[in-house]
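Quick illustration for those who missed Monday's session on complexes.
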Amino acid sequence: MSFENLNLIEPILRALKTEGYTEPTPIQAEAIPVVLKGRDLLGCAQTGTGKTAAFAIPILQLLNATQGQDGPNKPIKALILTPTRELAVQIGESFTAYGKHTGLRHTVIYGGVSQFSQTEALKRGVDILIATPGRLLDLMNQRFVHLHHVKMFVLDEADRMLDMGFINDVKKVITKLPAKRQTLFFSATMPPVISKLADSILFEPVNVEVTPVSSTVDKITQSVYYVTKSDKKSLLIHLLKDKAIESALVFTRTKHVADRITKELLKAGVKAAAIHGNKSQNARQNALTDFKTKKIRVLVATDIAARGIDVDNLSHVINYELPNVPETYVHRIGRTGRAGLSGVAMSFCDGEEKAYLKDIQKLIGIQVPVIEEHPYPMSHAEMNTKFEAPKKEFHKKPSHHSGQSKSSAPNKAGNHWANKTKKTGGGNTSSPAGGNTSAPKKHHSGGGKSWGPKKPSGGNNFSY
Ligand code: AMP
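Prediction with adenosine monophosphate bound:
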């Protein structure tokens, strides 16, 4: 399957070629034709599956077909609602990349920064608006945003909206959208509240389900280091002596620990920065840019801040602290091994975290190999200390996907993404017209990022 088979227009194909995409990911192959036909979509997929392009590409194509029909004051015709600023920025970057030859305009609005440049962009007119819910409602109340021309609505990461307490804001936005529209609904998990919301806003949707959980895990070389809490810092600095770790995303459970280890790393001469909810939007964005451009080697992040972080070619994820929700482990290590690349995930486990590790191993269906040869091993006594299983905190355990993590067989398409589609119901007539009529048959060859199957990864090659 190539992008040419999806009847995409030449300006988009050209942009995809520049991005180095050679073949669509499963969710793109399934979703793009459905969206181009004007159908509603229920996509069960998480970040890392290529879902952004799965909605951005057909939106660009459909809006391109009707471009110029609404005069110079471009009203907003597509709205993408996403939970975090980082995701909003990344979605904006995707629209920039895929839409650069279309002439369509988009802007991104999110809270925590001055609204001035955002309202200026809105005044100039945009075809596509990417927004987080709070700032969107704010600018709607101030009458900078009008949604009555919206034809396409994307709700991204619906389950995360729920986790972060945004679901009522989302519902408020939905009440302001025209009833006659095309809706694309994405969620990694489908807890009952989310599935009810999906039912209430989708019209005879096509379901597309991509479950990369186990496959992501398969491609990543995982290991665990038993180490006391107090030795974790020294172990991290020791591991980072390995030049093979070009860049690493280090996860902590709390902002406090993120700040503390960032300071320690800087003291040890390792270029590092932290991102978490207490950092200003600018500080977060700068840290992310410095990490992406390799100005810094280590980015230390909490789970919420890291949600949706998309860094090409990230080689290593280090769990300085294990997450107390096993699915979070899968989300974290999925930051590496993106777009068909393999990666390395190393986890530190202290006595209190052994219960977390047990839950994680149960979810992913494998025993994570233990690295015993390192300079800070836990003593036998510490290893066997009896401890109370720590209580799970505020995260809700998703009810939907946990069983899927055990299946590790590649799907029949030969790639590592288990996916299936289920068509239901008739056509939805509310979308903009066709638009997919002018796909030239061009052939692109090699050189780009491939989405094909990966060789199983070998053990990690660090020496101690
Ligand atoms: P997403 O799930 O949208 O966050 O995408 C995850 C990553 O996959 C991003 O870095 C995209 O640039 C990349 N990506 C998306 N589609 C493709 C594709 N067809 N081929 C290669 N990489 C892709």
